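Long-time lurker. I teach an intro course on protein structure, and each term I like to show students one example going from raw sequence to a predicted 3D structure in token notation. This year I'd like something fresh instead of my usual example. Would anyone be willing to generate the tokens for the chain below so I can use it in lecture? Attribution to the forum is fine with me.
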Amino acid sequence: MIRNKYFFLAFRLIVGGVFFASGLLKVGDPLAFAQDIKNFRIVSHEASFLAALILPWIEILCGALLITGILRRPSALLASGLLIGFIILVGVTMARGIDTDCGCFGSLSHRADWWLLLQDGVLLLMSLCVLFAKPGPRV
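-- Reply from a regular --
Happy to contribute to a lecture. Here you go:
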């Protein structure tokens, strides 16, 4: 297990930065994000709009908390849960043969594919390292 506090700081900043940026890029255009969600063909039209209004703010808050180190463990738990959900969503979408953009970064998004699963998997590992890090000196 990683014990270097600077690795944990880097993991917090990377995961937090990705969530913060992702939320900011989506919050400005909730209609486009709602369409991205709808393209996965998992939730209803109404649920996609509700998620598009709420999810970016959750990502911004989670990212900001990870970056600042405030409520480090709860925010790492939230990030891990979101990443697991994203991984499942992309995996199910790929298995169903649906070819769509992920919607992860608003207009800067890319395809929901194996590369995205790998990226989310790496972010999940970093987030879990932060979640299960032993309390120690703050960095």
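Some talking points for your students: The chain has one domain: 5-131. Helices lie at 5-27, 30-38, 45-68, 72-95, 114-131.
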